[in-house]
What we know:
This protein has helices spanning 10-21, 36-45, 57-60, 75-88, 103-110, 142-153, 166-175, 177-194, 199-219, 224-231, 237-247, 250-273, and strands spanning 3-6, 29-32, 50-52, 65-68, 93-96, 115-120, 130-136, 156-160. By secondary structure, the protein is of the alpha/beta class.
Amino acid sequence: MGITFIGGGNMATAxxxxxxARGRAAADFRVVEPLAEQxxxxxxxxxxxxxxxxxxxxxxxxxxxxxLAVKPQQARAAAHALAPHLAxxxxxxxxxxxxxxxxxxxxxxxxxxARLVRAMPNTPALIGKGISGIYAGxxxxxxxxxxxxxxxxxxxxxxxxxxxxxxxAVTAVSGSGxxxxxxxxxxxxxxxxxxxxxxxxxRRLAYATFAGAVALAQESADPAATLRAQxxxxxxxxxxxxxxxxxxxxxxxxxxxxxxxxxxxxELGDAFGSDA
Length: 276
């Protein structure tokens, strides 16, 4: 089974690395990457990988899956470059991990007989701890779905979606989600420093607390609300702290922030998908 990546950046590198770690040979992969410096990095990390500075017949002929891993503003040009070679190939499944670009737009740019799957991974995929929302239309059969999922599972968990529109919500919750976590960690570190800890101590306290709390939640069958209540003694320190957060509507602000991110994802899809 051959796989071609259009774009050889961080996410492509993470996915290839995950599959190689699971036993795939580097020679199974072809990567179209215009930047010579990035091609050198890929060669050094994955000896035997096949690299191409641009899309041509050699890059896609005989492969089972093509992964579109370019930036949204590069999507249309990448699809147009791929289209004539895709039509001549044996109809591989096309997996897009490009944020915001919809299947209808990709189908228009690629032309038939493209069989399209869309997914939204997140940056923890870089260390094999990611999660991806994934959607495939009725034109993609079970083997095609399994092939696309196998690529993403090499870098973390996969959640299948009932509709493509839910990918905007996935983008808002888990795609942008690491930034929300980092924002919270920043605040915890700032608070710890103001309480007299050094920067190194503040970082250690914040990171270990967050990692431990997430690990505890994952091990428990209880929802987060129950776990929070278990830590919150009446009249205690945690209750006092949470009262401040509630008074300032922090939870509601987070909900609004996710909604704003989902709205922006839809706007970007409209903008980047336009042929204007």
